[in-house]
Design goal:
heterodimer; A: 1% helix; B: alpha+beta; Ubiquitin-like (UB roll); 2 helices; 5 strands; 25% strand
């Protein structure tokens, strides 16, 4: 059985099912509230969710039972008396060290938990980074949306912020270096400085078996890095559009990546009224459309950056993504064929397998 | 002391008690004192900047109030979710 944690505009839905058939709603939590993200911490089994109540502000909650009581996590706040407040938590990611969990959010903030998500602390070096006054928000705010650990090394981490760029640490978050060489933004003048801090990265994933390799969906471009995020190569040739948000990889294959192109930044829907996932198995040299079982006529869907995830790997790879129109689609055969796991949900913000 | 009345989730956060006598010369002082007395409310009404959250309304004796609105010892203060937040 596969468990999907689906964050929506109107609550968290825990879906359960087998690949190939409709999933059932096993639990719903935070009814009526926007749930940006939810994940199950793999070591403890604890569910952790970020919820932005429109009245009472953003919070992180945790529980061992999705249908039971949730407890509010402590410490998810900026220093009191400052000029900024936390606006939203975009992502929550398990770290490499035992008990470590990271949360990223708006305004460009990284929180760290050492007790499996119960208490949190702001990463002060990123918060106080000297370049921060130059950081600009993207359309979704100044969101830290991608947190990418390095398998086996708790000190190495890659972050992506919109619309700032890539930040790299090799000392557990004590210092941060900007990784941006090769990222070209069409929304900037051609003579913009190479070290610009206005790079609208949409999503980043690492190839776990070759951790120096990263794939990146940009605001106009898909890129690959083979040097741990210091420099990037454009690999979007062959896609119907190089605009999109989410990205997934097959952990068994460092040359693999899956993207879901949208028409463009001014028209954020699936191209030609067809929903298709594009797969590369040669590190971006070529792309193959995968749409068997997905809507193929008059389908203008939007898939957000956190709404695409996978379970398993290799021949057992499962892929799942959700749309703002309330469907969740899945594949139990690495994208070869697809099925509808759920429909008629509220707008889907995030999908995570557990 | 002024009495702050809470409803719904705010009441639940505050020990499931609706009425809270709190001392303070202004709404800002009053709400900070309420947070100190009821730590589970921390971040629910005021954000880290000390500002009342955008979609929360505060009333003194039935009239809309601001952070700097003076409060007397016999005043009744209501903290309510604003209808503006409902569109989300």
């Amino acid at each position: 059985m596969t468990e999907l944690l689906v964050g929506t505009k109107k609550g968290l839905f825990v879906l359960e099912g087998e690949p190939g058939g409709a999933f059932e709603v096993a639990a719903r939590a935070f009814a009526g509230q926007p749930v940006e993200y939810a994940m199950r911490e793999p070591r403890s089994g604890r569910l952790i969710a970020s919820v932005t109540n429109p009245f009472y502000g953003p919070k992180i909650w945790h529980t061992m039972d999705a249908a039971g009581e949730w407890e509010q996590a402590k410490g998810v706040a900026l220093p009191e008396g400052g000029e900024k407040a936390v606006e939203r938590i975009w992502t929550i990611v398990s770290g490499e060290a035992n008990g470590t969990v990271y949360a990223g959010g708006d305004p460009g903030v990284l929180f760290e938990s050492r007790d499996g998500g119960v208490t949190w602390e702001l990463n002060r070096t990123l918060w106080e980074h000297p370049t921060r006054p130059e950081w600009q928000p993207g359309g979704g705010g100044l969101c830290l949306h991608s947190i990418v650990p390095w398998p086996g090394d708790p000190d190495r981490l890659t972050l992506a912020l919109s619309a700032v760029g890539i930040w790299l640490t090799e000392d557990g978050g004590k210092t941060w270096a900007h990784g941006n060489q090769g990222l070209k933004a069409r929304y900037l003048p051609e003579d913009a400085p190479a070290d610009t801090l206005t790079l609208c990265v949409h999503h980043v994933e690492r190839a776990p078996r070759r951790p120096e390799r990263l794939f990146l969906q940009f605001h106009g471009g898909v890129f690959r890095s083979d040097d741990a995020g210091e420099s990037w190569t454009y690999i979007a040739d062959g896609l119907p559009s190089d605009f999109g948000f989410p990205l997934a990889v097959d952990p068994a294959d460092p040359d693999s990546a899956f993207v879901i192109p949208l028409v463009a930044d001014m028209d954020r829907v699936t191209p030609d009224g067809r929903v298709r996932v594009y797969e590369t198995r040669d590190a971006g040299a070529t792309w193959t459309p995968r749409g068997d079982g997905l809507p193929s006529e008059d389908a203008y869907l939007t898939v957000l950056r956190c709404a695409f995830d996978r379970a398993g790997e290799g021949s057992g790879l499962e892929l799942y993504f959700g749309a703002t129109s309330g469907e969740v689609f899945g594949s139990g055969d690495a994208g070869a064929t697809w099925f509808t796991a759920a429909r008629n949900l509220p707008p889907v913000y995030s999908v995570q397998t557990a | 002391m002024a009495v702050v009345t809470l409803r719904g989730p705010l009441r639940k956060q505050a020990g499931d008690r609706a009425e809270h006598p709190v001392a303070g010369a202004t709404i800002a002082e009053l709400l900070r004192a309420l947070e100190r007395a009821q730590p589970a409310l921390d971040g629910w009404i005021l954000d880290e900047r000390g500002l009342v959250r955008r979609h929360i309304n505060v009333f003194v004796n039935g009239e809309r109030a601001r952070q700097d609105t003076p409060v007397g010892p016999d005043d009744r203060v209501d903290v309510l979710p604003a209808i503006s937040g409902g569109s989300q």
